Amino acid sequence: AGGGSFAMQAGMQHVTINEDAGTAAIADWLAARLGEAGACAITIPGGSTPFPILADLIDRHRDKIEAGGLEIWPNDDRIVPEDHEASNTGKIRALFEPLGATVATLT
């Protein structure tokens, strides 16, 4: 896979691919988008990959995130209670609800 980044328009407002970006670079990119977005909804994939990025985002960019207008939709979660250690939704809720964001409940 080559390096670099590109953006494309195709059915979505804007898709950006940042190949080979590290945790801090992705957190910086996401902070810039969330800081200018106002009210918006995002989805966060399952697995462990997002959590170092999200922790860095909150640690370094908490003041740039307009969390009161942020709605988060977890996806690809395990079917376990949110208080279970394997629940991505529970982890996302613990990170973002204290900031004022809304985290959708998966049913």
Features:
107 residues, alpha/beta, 3-stranded parallel beta sheet, two-stranded antiparallel sheet, globular, disordered N terminus
Q: How many strands in all?
A: 5
| Spans of at least 5 consecutive residues with low confidence | 1-11
Report how far apart the termini are.
37 Å
Tally of helical segments: 3
Radius of gyration: 14 Å
Q: Element order, helices and strands?
A: EEHEHEHE
Level of helix content?
Answer: 25-40%
Mean pLDDT: 83
What class would the helix/strand composition place it in? alpha/beta
- Overall 3D form: globular
Provide the spatial order of strands within the biggest beta sheet: 3-4-5
* Amount of beta strand: 15-25%
Give a quick account of the main beta sheet: strands, pairing sense, barrel closure: 3 strands, parallel
What does this structure look like?
- The protein has 107 residues and is α/β, with parallel strands linked by helices.
- Helices cover 34% and strands 19% of the residues.
- It has three helices and five strands.
- The chain has helices at 23-37, 50-61, 88-96, and strands at 5-8, 15-18, 40-44, 70-74, 102-103.
- The strands form two sheets. It has a three-stranded parallel β-sheet with strand order 3-4-5, covered by helices on one side. It has a two-stranded antiparallel sheet with strand order 1-2.
- Strand 3 (40-44), helix 2 and strand 4 (70-74) form a beta-alpha-beta unit.
- Helix 1 packs across helix 2 and helix 2 (50-61) runs parallel beside helix 3.
- The longest helix is centred in the N-terminal third of the chain and has 15 residues, at 23-37.
- The radius of gyration is 14 Å and the shape is globular.
- The chain starts with a strand and ends with a strand.
- 17% of the residues are buried.
